[in-house]
Each structure stands twice: as structure tokens, then as C-alpha cells.
Protein: Selenocysteine lyase/Cysteine desulfurase
Organism: Clostridium collagenovorans DSM 3089
Amino acid sequence: MNTSSMGKNYKKLIVGIDTKIPLKNGKEVTAINFDNAATTPPFVSVLNSINKFASLYSSSHRGMGYKSQFSTYLYEDGRKVVLEFLNAKEGSTVIYGNNTTDAINKLCNNLYAYNSKYNPKRNIILSTFMEHHSDDLPWRDKFEVKYVKVDDNYRLSLEDLKEKLIEYNDRVALVAVTGASNVTGYTNPIHYIASLAHEYNTKILVDGAQLVPHCSFSMQGSSPMEDIDFVVFSAHKMYAPFGTGVLVGPKDFFNSVAPDYKGGGTIDFVSHKYVKWAEAPERDEAGSPNIMGVVALSTSIKTLERLGMDKISQWEEILTNYTLTRIKNIPDIEIYIDPNDTKNHISIIPFNIKGMSHSMTSKILSYEFGISTRDGCFCAHPYVTKILDLSPEEVLYEIEHNGGEKPGMVRLSFGLYNSLEEIDALVIALNTIVRHKDYYLRLYKNDDFSFFPI
């Protein structure tokens, strides 16, 4: 498949790609979505698999009817699909949850129980300045969190990571690091970080929510020292709705402590005085499972594998570089990554228009041009305010003097189905907004931006 046809062929795989949406002036246009880092639209293959399975959908585990047995098979087979997709090492297991946030909270609870029982002095989590709140806030309740700094280019400082591993040494319970930032798109050398963590006898968690859908990912490195211990990611960011998150880690670890969330499905036997927990992963999946979500995820993974993750990564790199080349010279556009350095980067571009708030820019793109972006701090406030060079005091001042609006950015995030033609439309829109900035500022100054229904 040559590069000129990639986007068009990928578009055919996506549901709702030709959906018309209204503009503020009443006209309708084909929607353009550059907000894929938040949620991707579903694959056609995913909805087809759900529709096909729906007539056989039933309860899973312990039901003896054909539909129940078939539902159980698909649910359990999904674990194999995930493990193979991630090239997980032997002895790993897959625990399903609601999303990445849910998965990290579960790991936090299990790790706290494990360390309290076996190694109570390991009470420090090394998180980083790059993290999404979901890889920061859960740890604060049960551990002492230390944050690895970023360098002047807002990439992770490996030197600071080493220094903190040396400083806290045998107190570090886990190195929790994003595979790719949801703000800048910068990726981290996760296998090298794993080798550092293991050198100091601790483990590593990779938040793969942004990384796994965009490029090849392997939990196994070139040596056991480089292996990833835990990884989490979400189906809804890889073209599979229905609410499934994944936590992958050593089965022995999860078997070593009682489940954090107890109830039906987590036990082998119960009396009023005795509980025998089921083996992992069942012990960590309380209640009726989300079979539809697992079917969707499995189909999505198979579709991505058929397309080839390396080809997807190559196409999204083309989209990113094409966009940066086209917008970096537009007057008043401030780009918060180096447009000339997109190595170790996924398809995310944060920017602002000088003299215009991030929320106004994002809403004008939507209301006037039908282009979806995201604006704000992207659930990564410390990282965004660091990039914007704002102190906590300055942030509070900005909020108090801007009607409660937090400082932030506009984020473009591409999916495999986006096209060069869509980027051309974005460039026209941004040039129009910049050229007529005063007009748009007056037009939208007192607009409440209320949603207008289709």
C-alpha cells in the first residue's frame, strides 16, 4: 500500500467516517476528528463482530448451555489474543477492567497489599512529570510518590530517574511511567527504563494507553532485565468501544494477595467462616464480566495486527510531519513540541494561537469548520503547566482572572484513518482564524458555546 492510498484505505475500516455534522451557521459538513488520543471511533470489523456474537451472547463461566460455553470461550480466548499482541512473557496473565484508570487503581491496591505483607519498607512510587493523572493520583493514597523530572525539551530525564533510584534504592516499590505522553506524544525508552528499575530490584509499570494503539509493543526486551513487568491500556483508544481496560502482569503476583474488589466470581469456595479465593485472573474480576467489551477488543487487536502496527506507525508519522510542516509557519501559532524532531514520538501535536484561549480556538474549529480537537490540560496538569512555564501561583492567578478557565493547550491527535486532505482543511481553518482573529474574538467573546443539537 503506497502512502497516498493509506489514509483512504484505512478510512473504509471506520464506522461513521462520512457522518455529516452541523456548523454554527446551519450548514452541514463531513466531520473531521483530530481527538483520537481521547477516544477513537470503532472499527467496522468490531461492530460486525458484536452483531454476529449478539445472538449467542450469554452468561460466562459455569453455565452449561451452548451459548454460555461459547461466551466463556470468547472471553477466555481474548486473554490469549492480548498476551500474544503484547508479546507477554510466560507466566503473565490478563485482568480485564473498565479502562486504564481502573487497571492502575487495581494494581495500586494489589501492590500495596503485597508490599504491606512481604516488604513494607518499599513505600515509594517513582512517577514522572509526564504522567496522566491516572498514573499519579491512585498512588498518592497508599504510597509516597516521587516525580522524575523532564529536561528542557520536556522529555523524561533519565539522569534524574537514575539519581532517584540510587537515592531511594530499596524503598522503591515501582517505577510507573507512561509509554507515550498524551500531551506531547513523546515516547519513553521503556525497555531501558525497565533495565534500570530491575538493576535496583524494583518493577516497572508502563501506561500504554497512548502507545499500544499506535506502534508495535513488546513486554519482552532483548534480555530479561529489559522485560516489562506490568502494562495497562484501554480498548476505547484502539477502535473498540464497550468499556474494557487491560492490566497485564505476573500471575504469581496477583495470586499472592487477596483481591481488592470482592464478590461473585472471585472465589473458589465460601463458608461463613472461610474463603478460598479463585486463581488469578478470576479473583480480580468480580461480578459478571463485560464479554461484549472483550469481543470488541479481541477483534480490534486482530484488525490492527492484520494491518500491521509498523505500517500504522509509519502512516501516522507521515500525518504528523505533514501537519507540522504546514502549520509551523502560520503566524501566531505556538507549537509545544519541536517540529523538526519527531523521533520517539506518536501522532500528537499540542499548540495555541497567540492572543486566543485554548477553549476558544478549539470551539471555533468545531463550530465554524467541523474539526474536532481537545483543549485544556488533558488530565496532566503538572506537565502542561511545566511546558507553559507557569508556577502554581501563576496558574491560580490565571484562573481567577479568566473566568475560572485553566491555562492549557489545543491538542491534535491523529488516528490511522486520518488523511492529508483533512490536514489541508485544518491548515485552511487555522489560517482563517489567525487572519480574522479580531473578528472571531468579538464574535465568540460572550458566546456561551452551548451545544446545538443535530
User: Anything to note?
Assistant: The two ends are 37 Å apart (CA to CA). The CA atoms of residues 95 and 281 lie 6 Å apart. DSSP finds 15 helices and 17 strands in the chain.
